[in-house]
Amino acid sequence: MLPNTGKLAGCTVFITGASRGIGKAIALKAAKDGANIVIAAKTTQTHPKLPGTIYTAAEEIEAAGGRALPCVVDVRDEQQINSAVEKAVEKFGGIDILVNNASAISLTNTLETPTKRVDLMMSVNTRGTYLTSKACIPYLKKSKIAHILNLSPPLNLNPMWFKQHCAYTIAKYGMSMCVLGMAEEFRGEIAVNALWPKTAIHTAAMDMLGGSGIESQCRKVEIIADAAYSIFRKPKSFTGNFIIDENILKEEGIKNFDIYAVKPGQPLLPDFFLDEHPDVGIKKIESHGPVPEIKEEKSRPQPKPQRSGPVEETFRIVKDSLSDDVVKATQAIYQFELSGEDGGTWFLDLKNKSGNVGYGEPSDRADVVMSMSTDDFVKMFSGKLKPTMAFMSGKLKIKGNMALAIKLEKLMNQMNSRL
Predict the structure, then answer these.
(1) Residue 147, CB half-sphere, CA atoms under 13 Å: how many?
(2) d(CA 398, CA 109)
(3) With contact defined as beta carbons under 8 Å apart, do 224 and 26 qualify?
(4) Could you please report the per-residue DSSP string of 77-141?
(5) Distance of CA 345 to the CA centre of its chain
């Protein structure tokens, strides 16, 4: 891991969403140099599913060698932001670095994203980043270090990154557009950059999105902390960059990235917004076409499955693997619209009784509808194709509850040895 140099000693770092996860990891890295950390987050009481508060984070920061100022800040509230900035300046004498880390996520399509959730993502991600930057800039201008770092992705206009979660992408790209504009506006005065992970990072939020077991395909938060630390050590002239964590650490001489893996040797999930797959370019064209309604699929006559086909065999093994415990842990009905030989409509009921699989539509409404080719379906259930990889490269289309779709991956992992 990247060693501390002591360069941030005495610097004041204002971090939104620093009570846990990536924000806290960046805070602890800077604290080891003896930095002052302003924990601007809204968690004052422990959440049953999200451990950590601004006060427990403050204790950890001070134990690591830093000074901490916990401030109750909901970045949707401009008054709370301004109050925290005033307290920071009063206590530490200024602000040297701002990290816009607070973020809200909902991986849902347009019709399934409630307006309240749209407003939350826009208000926290884009507006919150803009307002916090605006409040800190007068003080950053006076600093010799002067960095703004947004935890946001490179601006990638491939429609693939919009079609399944348009509102989230717009809100997240708003943070990146702040980098684009402010880097130019304050060139020579403040370095403004974005940082994004190459792979999924294990946080409490990722556990909630992906369920237990997802961590084996993630890296630790320390990789983001090390990458952020590397950026803070650069001069103000290093600005307007959209940095990927692994790339900047390679430049620092890091060669062994297994140290950042939760489970070294396991395949890692790629993060969103990065075109890493050869067939993504082809999918750009396809994504402009209208997505067929599920009703249209249902109205077509279904071809009869071959009794000896690989899909039939896959579902037979899946059926043998069902149990009351699996159903109790999953609580979802999946429908598969498969194209190609041995295709048609299939279902996997992991909600009722001891579970069931079969050809045709489920008796109850499906929570998740997955559309893909039969070849990719068999690869997915046998562990040769990760569902997240299939989705992100356009091979898998998902309608319905994304969290339940990700939950299915754990079941697949249990069956891989038999398929």
Answers:
(1) 26
(2) 10
(3) yes
(4) -HHHHHHHHHHHHHHHSS--EEEE---------GGGS-HHHHHHHIIIIIIHHHHHHHHHHHHHT
(5) 31
Give the whole-angstrom CA distance, residue 115 versus residue 124: 14
pLDDT < 50 regions, the chain: 277-307
For Cα atoms 30, 100, 182, give the angle at the middle one, nearest 5 degrees.
115
pLDDT of residue 317: 86
**What SS3 state is found at 337?**
strand
Catalytic residue among 139, 168, 173, 334: 168
Give the per-residue pLDDT at 292.
32
Q: How far apart are CA 95 and CA 142, in angstroms?
A: 8
Catalytic residue flag (residue 168): yes
What lies within 8 Å, CB to CB, of 127 at 6+ separation is: 75, 76, 174
Give the pLDDT confidence score for residue 418 in this predicted structure: 52
In angstroms, rounded to a whole number, what is the distance separating the alpha carbons of residues 148 and 231? Answer: 10
Beta strands 332-339 and 344-350, pairing class? antiparallel
